[in-house]
Design a protein that fits this description.
This protein is of the alpha/beta class and about 475 residues long. About 40% of the residues lie in helices and about 15% in strands.
């Protein structure tokens, strides 16, 4: 399997090199040169497989030539062996044909664990084989940071620096990051918003001279391994609901477009998906594009669903690449115009074709709380605010009541007590046993100005397990 850049000017790489590359040298994102495609018979034969075995079947083509089958099977078994539910991603029914896919049974109670528990193990495997050491710089709007730290904290050959927007993540999210200590773990609170953090990460990848020869690795969903891992649970959910003999629809809470792009790939790999719904909050750039062909940057707002407080959706570039016939030059021109002018539209026929699969909805905080309260009253199920947005979007945008609708349950409600409280549910939220003392744990975090050079100087000073790079 070879991987190419969305902007067409970087060299094609194998999986191992893509894992370590993050952004391509031309500023683009890596995608498979050719997507594997499975027959309906193949997919049907996977029904009833344990999650790690299904993951092996779905992901094996992406790592062929880089990781032997036996090693990859072992990595996957260890990855999903740390989840607290034996089904790994159980489905919970809300009504007759509406389901929540619970993706929060990993160590940090968020869907990011599916990819980042795997990413940490893949990095360990590849870096050990190569005898290399790397620096991870990641930006988080809440959940990626803790999942990345949890997934990579034992990696012997990794120093990890996570940037989060100061006072713009929930208290549980922050503490899940700042209470994990290790010589190779560094939390940085940036006096800005998530987009500022993400821009610093991108700029650091573009010019890595501050590292003095050490390589940067991405843990954000620009890293192909993250997307690859998320494809699996679309197959998992569909197989539980009669797929591939019947189609399934999905509503996906998304800010950076990675999770829903994985669903788009699952469909292109042969899984019958009828509809993908982009569910987002007040920061509605993706909804404005899907509903009106306007991808225009606006002011970023803090909401009760902070993991989606994102205005520049990195992974959207991967969809745009396909929309433009995988023409790297055309895509590069489009991204340049966005950088210069803050917005763009695409040719009408390209947008119309995309809308055959995608719908979207933006949900504000008041509607989010109403949905949390409504679902709790109807079913006794308590939703986190991101999942509630997914439910609201599913109910507003659904094309057919005959086709099962799966809402991706992206996080445990205990991570967002403010939203639950504002919804007036009045249910006491208890942290799982492994996090029961979270609010008593000591925190370690460095607050830095919204300044790229200050962040890079900090990384340079504290890398290599506390020894300057």
């Amino acid at each position: 399997m070879r991987y190419i850049s969305t902007r067409g000017q970087a060299p094609a790489l194998n999986f191992e090199d893509v894992l370590l590359a993050g952004l391509a040298t031309d500023g683009g994102l890596y995608v498979p040169e050719n997507l594997p495609r499975f027959t309906q018979e193949e997919i049907a034969s996977w029904a009833g497989l344990p999650y790690h075995e299904l993951a092996f079947r779905v992901m094996r083509p992406f790592v062929t030539g880089s990781i032997p089958d036996a090693d990859f099977k072992k990595i996957l078994e260890e990855t999903y062996g740390v989840f607290s539910h034996s089904a790994i991603a159980p489905l919970r029914q809300l009504n007759g044909n509406e389901w929540v896919l619970e993706l929060f049974h990993g160590p940090t109670l968020a869907f990011k664990d599916f990819a980042l528990q795997l990413l940490g193990r893949l990095l360990d495997y590849v870096l050990e084989k190569r005898g290399e050491r790397v620096v991870i710089i990641g930006a988080t709007s809440g959940d990626t940071g803790s999942a990345a730290i949890e997934g990579c904290k034992h990696c012997e050959n990794v120093d990890i620096f996570i940037l989060h927007p100061h006072k713009r993540v929930s208290q549980v999210q922050r503490r899940q990051m700042t209470t994990i200590f290790g010589e190779n773990i560094h939390n940085i609170a940036i006096e800005g918003n998530f987009d500022d953090c993400q821009e610093m990460v991108k700029n650091s990848f573009a010019d890595q001279s501050f590292l003095k020869g050490t390589r940067l690795v991405a843990v954000n969903s620009i890293n192909w391994a993250r997307i690859m891992a998320q494809i699996v649970y679309y197959f998992h959910a569909a197989l539980q609901l009669g797929g591939p003999a019947r189609s399934v629809s999905f509503s996906v809470p998304t800010g950076n477009f990675g999770d829903i792009f994985a669903g788009y790939l699952a469909r292109n790999m042969g899984l019958p998906i009828n509809q993908l719904i982009v569910a987002t909050n007040r920061n509605d750039i993706l909804h404005r594009f899907m509903s009106g062909n306007q991808y225009v940057k606006e002011t970023l707002h803090a909401t009760l669903s902070p993991s989606m407080d994102i205005m520049v959706s990195s992974n959207f570039e991967r969809l745009l690449f396909d929309m433009h016939g995988r023409n790297g030059a055309a895509l590069a021109g489009l991204m340049d115009s966005f950088k210069q002018g803050g917005g763009f539209s695409v040719e009408q026929e390209r947008w119309t074709e995309t809308r055959k699969l995608f719908d979207s909805l933006a949900v504000d905080d008041a509607q989010t709380c109403e949905t949390i309260a409504e679902v709790y009253a109807q079913t006794g199920e308590l939703l986190d605010p991101h999942t509630a947005i997914g439910v609201k979007a599913a109910r507003e945008c659904r094309r057919s009541l005959d086709i099962p609708m799966v809402i991706l349950g992206t996080a445990h409600p205990v991570k967002f007590p403010e939203a639950v409280e504002k919804a007036g549910v009045g249910k006491a939220l208890e942290l799982p046993e492994h996090l029961a003392d979270l609010f008593e744990r000591e925190e370690r975090c460095t607050v830095l100005a919204n300044d790229l050079k200050a962040v890079q100087a900090f990384v340079s000073q504290h890398g290599n397990r506390g020894k300057p790079l």
